Amino acid sequence: MAETKREIERKYEADDSGLPDLTGVGGVAAVLDRGLTELDATYYDTADQRLAAASVTLRRRTGGADAGWHLKLPVARDVRDEIRAPLSDTLPTELAALVRSRVRGAELVPLVRLRTARSVRHLVDADGALLAEASVDAVTAERLTTPGRTEKWTEIELELADGGDPAFLDRVEKRLVKAGVRPSAAPSKLARALAATGTRRRPAAPAEPVTAGDHVLAYLRAQRDALVALDPAVRLDTPDTVHRMRVATRRARGTLRTFRAVLDRAATDPVAAELKWLAGELGVDRDQEVLADRLTAWARARRGGAHGHLTGVLDSPRHLALLNSLDALLADPPLREAAARKPRKVLGKAVRKDLSRLTTLVERALRLPPGEERDLALHEARKKAKRARYAAEAATPALGAPAAALTAAMKSLTTLLGDHQDSVMARKALRELAAVAHAAGESAFPYGVLHGREEARAAAAEAELPGRWREAGARFLR
Prior knowledge:
alpha+beta, Hypothetical Protein Pfu-838710-001, CHAD domain, 14 helices, 8 strands, 55% helix, CHAD_dom, CYTH and CHAD domain-containing protein, CHAD_dom_sf, CYTH_domain
């Protein structure tokens, strides 16, 4: 069974002097020698280094207290999540699943072997509590795909104790720098080994967008990257990641539909259809997340099955084919004539079209009396408001403040309409629960009370909508 540990660590160049005295730094009362450990790690990647290009590392390591398979996923600077699985001869299936969105059908092969002699020190406070672990690592790197290519170096690794304050690392680093120790130029041992023993694949830095096509493709590329990067967190059931993946899916689909003057829809419509499918599958799990906030006990039981279904979707050939289609579209985009034009006119026209469609839907919904038909109309308006928001978001780098203001206004509008739709869903669930209770001879009164509260929430949202809409949309149609 895999387990996850968040690492916050920094690396430094080391020389023969080893680790400077850190006693008294940031509350360090003592530096305890924990001896020498021999570590032997083999790092795996595709032949074209897809994991390394994304700062993801996958290794099988022996030696030390945590021998086994380790997958490290970047979170932020100096921060990574390490997912550990027991030592075995083959890659554990749970770790294979977590890299599937990046690896797809490519084979994972041994790429680099790192043998490390690690001298460990514990930095503890006056009560003996661990503040950080400092180690001096003598590393020998061997490139397994090019026999005989080796490199040696020594580095200092400083890892914050669980629950520690990252500011402590700043204070220690200040002492290290004062002692002549320099931060490492490489973000990881693997990155240094790849650079020192051969080639290290680095993703090409995207050029600054100039044309309308450049801006659209930059936004679409960001959504593709989000879909891939969020995949492991969704599988691990990390809070809010299903919602974020669904948003990336909708942003990508909205981009293909809104900017048809830039991208040929004959090529993009099939991709947009698959993005719609994925958003729908993600919605099954997302809807249970929303209900869990309002009807916790009822939703928890249902959500377990929904998440299992979603994991199957992410493993499916259809989902992997969608990711490949996005890659192909970005590599060879089906650009139309307008793509080469300046972005302000082309993107601005597309945004105004989305706003015009939204205006029609909102005004129709406001004319309807409260009830199921109005609920459906407001739900449709919400979807179009999201599309308008994503269009403005994509156009913001080119159009500047007006598009940024529209993005914020559409976000406010979709939040209000989202609250209304959540109430619609909750009331449906409560009616189901009341029917079950009645059939079982139990009182349905509590569900009626909750239903009344949800009705009040929906009524409040509907009352606020006209004013929110005037603020959000009308002035941008000029």
